[in-house]
Design goal:
Blueprint (H helix, E strand, L loop, with lengths): L1 H56 L9 E10 L5 E12 L2 E8 L2 E8 L2 E6 L26 E2 L3 E3 L2 E9 L6 E7 L5 E6 L10 E11 L2 E11 L2 E13 L15 E4 L5 E2 L2 E4 L13 E9 L5 E8 L3 H11 L3 E3 L1 E3 L2 E3 L1 E9 L3
Antiparallel strand pairs: 1-2, 1-13, 2-3, 3-4, 4-5, 5-14, 6-8, 7-8, 8-9, 9-10, 10-11, 11-12, 12-13, 15-20, 16-19, 17-18, 17-22, 20-21
């Protein structure tokens, strides 16, 4: 009887196990579906927050009224020195605008007419933060599909819904925070430029006022690693159609490129080469460089903008020169563009 009952009990045990295992698998699958659904809902909520902020504050949106704007700004250097500058913009539409940035002896003029744009720099080396100035009040640059809902926060005493975007090529996180009541963008946090050496870059937006159908921030305060780095305030914003056509004449020596009237896509690296440390080191190191990506996807005109020393710079340049990109597109057509590339040397 023992020989006969043993196998029967064993078969009975397996028969009991199969439905239990099936139930477990079904429960796991349902949990995964529920988790995916929650993640999708959070991404949809984040996209809705970004889109609402763009509709609320994008004064350059299609159909917006022409305007003239002046912004005074101050750049605070590491040694505490303060440099004052002025940014002006005349905007008629996406196909006709003029921007000028003046800081000490440096001048940058950008003009767009139709599908062409021009850039003129009075010096080959642009001062730090120059490129950040027109982006301060450009909510139209935010892409809604790349963010995920994060926890709520308090920003300078104001309750805020926050979203984040973690780059696929970096552990650093970008974050945006929106006023819980109005939906306006009140803070933007960017990853540190120097691998944590300078700390995260945070900009606070305040003093919102009405301009036409939009509600527009007039004051901006930015820090790097909690150290003040940039302050700006819009001192003039007027609805105006410019009468002087010479405003849109490109200056002599300006570089011509494409003016994108609809969606643009930045270049994407499709082949990278690992950077090899030139020496022993005891912490992660980041080298930042500017790179021009051609319509053929090849990098050129590489220029290091931040490095701990020339040896790491040379190693990073050697690697990035071998990279290949999918070129940027403007209205669906490949275009040459200048981007910032960070290469990180990891210490294990």
């Amino acid at each position: 009887m023992a020989r006969n009952n043993g196998p029967k009990r064993q078969r009975s045990f397996h028969n009991m196990f199969k439905p239990c295992r099936l139930t477990f698998l079904l429960a796991s699958a349902l949990a995964l579906l529920e988790s995916t659904s929650v993640a999708n809902n959070k991404q949809a909520e984040a996209a809705a927050l970004v889109e609402h902020a763009k509709q609320l504050s994008d004064i350059r949106a299609d159909g917006a009224h022409p305007f003239r704007l002046r912004l005074d700004f101050r750049i605070i250097k590491d040694d505490g020195r303060v440099i004052e500058g002025v940014y002006t913009e005349v905007w008629v539409s996406k196909s006709q605008w003029r921007r000028e940035t003046a800081l000490e002896d440096f001048r940058r003029i950008q003009i767009a007419v139709g599908r062409k744009s021009w850039l003129f720099d009075s010096s080959p080396v642009a001062p730090e933060h120059i490129a950040d100035i027109p982006l301060l009040f450009d909510t139209g640059r935010l892409r809604s599909e790349v963010w995920k809902l994060q926890r709520d926060r308090e920003v300078e005493g104001t309750g805020a819904h926050c979203v984040e975007n973690r780059s696929s090529t970096s552990t650093a996180t970008w974050a945006l925070c929106f006023d819980k009541i109005t939906g306006a963008l009140i803070a933007e946090s960017r990853p540190p430029l120097f691998g944590g050496e300078s700390g995260e870059r945070v900009c606070l937006y305040s003093d919102y006022q009405k301009f036409g159908d939009q509600t527009f921030a007039r004051s901006y305060n930015c820090t790097e690693g909690k150290r003040p780095s940039l302050t700006a305030r819009i001192v003039e914003l007027a609805a105006e159609t410019p009468q002087d056509p010479t405003l849109f004449t490109p200056p002599e020596g300006a570089k011509e490129s494409a003016n994108c009237l609809s969606r643009t896509k930045p270049p994407a690296a499709v082949h990278t080469v690992e950077v090899i440390p030139p020496q022993k080191f005891d912490h992660s190191v980041v080298v930042v460089m500017s790179v021009v990506v051609g319509t053929d996807g090849l990098p050129r005109d590489l220029e290091v903008t931040s490095t701990p020393d020339r040896y790491f710079a040379e190693a990073a340049l050697k690697a990035v020169r071998q990279w290949k990109f999918k070129p940027a597109t403007c209205d669906g057509e490949p275009v040459e563009t200048k981007i910032a590339v960070e290469t990180e040397f990891h210490h294990y």
